[in-house]
Amino acid sequence: MKEMKLGLAFGCAVCAVGTAVAGIEFTAERHLPGFDGRLCKIQPAVESDGGKVALMTYQKLLLTGSDVFYGQFIRRSADGGRTWTAPREIEVLKDTREHGLRVAHVANPRYNRKFGKWFALGVAETFKDDKAPFQEFIGGRPYAWPLYATVDAERGDYTSCTNLAFPLPYEFAMPFGQWVELEDGDMLTPFYYRPVGAGKRGRVIVIRYRFEGDGLKPVAIGEPVVCDSLKRGFGEPSLVRFNGRFYMTLRSDEYGAYVESADGLRFGAPVKWAWGDGKPIGNANTQQHWVPVGDELYLAYTRVTPTNGHVFRNRAPIFVAKFDPAGRCLVRSTETAVVPERGARLGNFTVTDNPAGETWLVTAEWMQPKGCERHGSDNSLWFVRFRPAEREKRAMMTGSEREHN
To answer: With contact defined as beta carbons under 8 Å apart, do 32 and 86 qualify?
Structure first.
């Protein structure tokens, strides 16, 4: 694991890290440190139009409960993610009430390049009290349902929110992780969901959506990725297209895995994440996301290490390593930590790539369980920017481009 050296920048609580490993460079910045001991910032997301405009969101979590969410906040950048506005709560996503339950809303920003259109996808989730999510049908309503929001990126705000059509019967359904925009502007959107009567076992599926009027219409349904031998099934997918193939990550209680597809809708058997020698990488019960950089594809993940046993489910630091599709493995010699371990979990994170040639990762120091701050965490948001290393960029440039670089 490469050493990360942090330094204060311009007197503000933003730390920058730079290195080059296995053909990539990255910088990591620490944003918005501090928390009040009652609520903490969690599950940030970021999106860019590939130019100057970018949006970053995060939720608030009640520290005395388990996955008890309150509100979503937004920041805007007008200079490609270099500076950001102060966060403010998204009004159209504030809590509502149905059947005596509190309904919390979250929708992460997305940008469709074909149509130059901002939007957001997320979920509405019900709570009976402040202990945990409510997970029972009530009044014929699923306990968590997908959302579509319209976005005004110039104003840095959401303008409306409505239900997103999901074409299967379900108790819980959530659009999640990275998605793929096709050449015609349609979007392959991975979900994880629980069919009616399936209990706690989740499934993963990809739905193809198309803009229609002010919303999205499902136009093709993939085949679910199912494994009934897993305690809670598969969940929290992320999808990428690389060298003409589609790859989707999968979380389960037992192990992290991926599946492969020719069309992004129908996938082969799950492959457990392993190194080139066949040994498991040591991750389970948490997310993984793709980091495309230049002509290579990397995976971002957390795993067990000899020193992170004090972190909830070993969810820090965040590593990246190069993916070898032919070997169906990660290349161990390329592994490096890109967000440091400071006692708090980091496993709920998002990744996006943009046409400007960078890939961005954001995560938050989740301040549970109580006491993780004694290892240095302070509920900071971490913003990581990946790009090809200078030598790699030069190798991809034409002779004329080199002369003018």
So the answer is: no
